[in-house]
Each structure stands twice: as structure tokens, then as C-alpha cells.
Write a structure and sequence with these properties.
With 128 residues, this protein is mostly helical. The protein contains 4 helices and no strands. The protein has one domain.
Amino acid sequence: MKASRPARWPLLLLAASGWLALSATGLAAGSAPRVAVTVLFLLVCPGAAVLALVRPLLGPRDHSGDAMESVALTVAVSVALGMLVTAGYYMTGVFTMPRAVMTLAGITTVAALGALVMPGRRRQGGRP
């Protein structure tokens, strides 16, 4: 049971990261803290949360090169989610930065808490 405890804090911080980024949008436009927090969130957090939720479904595999693979997948999934959310808001004519960050914060929170609630999901049974 102690082995699963350290995995809780990163997921809880990940779940809260979007709301920190949303609060940073209230800072002065173009200020260094606003830019740093929102760019870091947009490039890392949604993808990290989704991968934390999906990764256990992949089952056991070879982990050589896993760190670079995880970084690349995290950034790619984050950018893809950001593009989907932004395109959806632009197509409906209601895009604002706080609205897009709020949507991504919600996605990040749901994915991180989903990974937290179901940490032991693994494929069961043998493969043919």
C-alpha cells in the first residue's frame, strides 16, 4: 500500500495545475509569470494527465527509451488537446483564452483524478 502513496501527490498537483494557470490569466497581459505558467501548463499538464490515465491500459512492455517517449507523447497530446479545444471555440465564435484554459483545466483535472481513483487498472488474463 505504501508503494501507491507517492503516486498520489503528482496526480493531485497535476489536477490543480490547470486552476493555477487559469488564475494566472488574471495577471497583466504579457507579464512573465502569466506567460510562464500558462505556457508550461499548455505544453505539459493536459498530456501528462491523459497519459497517466491511459498508460496503465497499455499493459506490460519494454521500457527502454521510456523517458523520451513519455516527454514526446506528453507534449504531443497536450498540443493536440489544446488545438482541439481552441478550434472548437473558434468555430463557434466564442474563443477567449480564459475559456480555453478553463476547458483544458477541466480535462486535466478529470484525467488526473481518474488516474488517481483507478491506479491499479491493468489488463487482466493471459494473451492468446
